[in-house]
Amino acid sequence: MDVVNVTADAEEFTCNAYFLDGEVPALVDAGTMPGVVDVLREHTDELDRLVLTHQHHDHVGELDAVLDAFDPELYAYADHPRRDHALEPDDEVDLGDETFEAVYTPGHAGDHLSFVGQSALFSGDVVVYNDAAFEDGSFGRTDMPGQSRERLVESLYDLLEHLPDTVTSMYPGHGDQFHASDDESVRDVIDRALSRAERREPKYPEG
């Protein structure tokens, strides 16, 4: 299964939006990059479904444009005027060539889902590989209204419980992708992010 970050060349702030080629052409998040539809058309003529990790603006800014261009079915946890399928925790959805479990992982966002397959994890913003705060294992910010560090920590534990040992790639909402090596696994990255989140220290200290 090929996975392409279709917002990789964005010049504005956006999430990573991932196109999954395969039996079920799919997109995880839409991002905010103008022209994402043109990039998608470089890889596919059709898009069967679009799934949302959550509905923060940087993940849905170009949602209408993608829906208008490809008419995929929209899957999301929270309500949306154009949602076709309401995803509940532990629901399964076919993306690309794998079946993914929707794991409810709030804390950064109340509607946050992560998608766990047999070889890949689409983690949204609950856990990322690197960002401005930490390298090799970080977590979504929790200092804005409606966010909760305590709930995010619980979500990371839940994610680890749902994670098969066969998962070797993590595709986060921001920063770099991670692919396991002999020295480090996806579980190691999440464990490191969890340890940092549990300290309850500000992710971005002032100054």
Q: Work out the strand percent.
A: 15-25%
CATH topology: Metallo-beta-lactamase, Chain A
- Please mark out the parts with pLDDT under 50 across 5 or more consecutive residues, or reply none: none
> CATH H level: which superfamily?
Ribonuclease Z/Hydroxyacylglutathione hydrolase-like
Précis, in short:
The chain is α/β, with parallel strands linked by helices. It has five helices and 14 strands.
Task: Provide a descriptive summary of the structure in words.
The structure is a single chain. With 207 residues, the chain is α/β, with parallel strands linked by helices. The protein has one domain: Metallo-beta-lactamase, Chain A, CATH 3.60.15. It is 22% helix and 23% strand. The protein contains 5 helices and 14 strands. It has helices spanning 36-41, 57-60, 63-70, 149-162, 186-198, and strands at 3-5, 18-20, 26-28, 49-51, 73-76, 85-86, 92-95, 98-104, 113-116, 120-124, 127-128, 138-139, 169-172, 178-179. It has a 6-stranded mixed sheet, with no helix packed on it. A 6-stranded mixed sheet has the order 7-8-9-10-13-14. Strand 3, helix 1 (36-41) and strand 4 (49-51) form a beta-alpha-beta unit. The longest helix has 14 residues, at 149-162. The protein is globular, with a radius of gyration of 16 Å. The N and C termini lie far apart (43 Å). The mean pLDDT is 96. Keywords: Hydrolase, Metal-binding, Zinc. This is MBL fold metallo-hydrolase. One of its GO terms (molecular function) is hydrolase activity. Pfam families: Lactamase_B (PF00753). Its cofactor is Zn(2+).
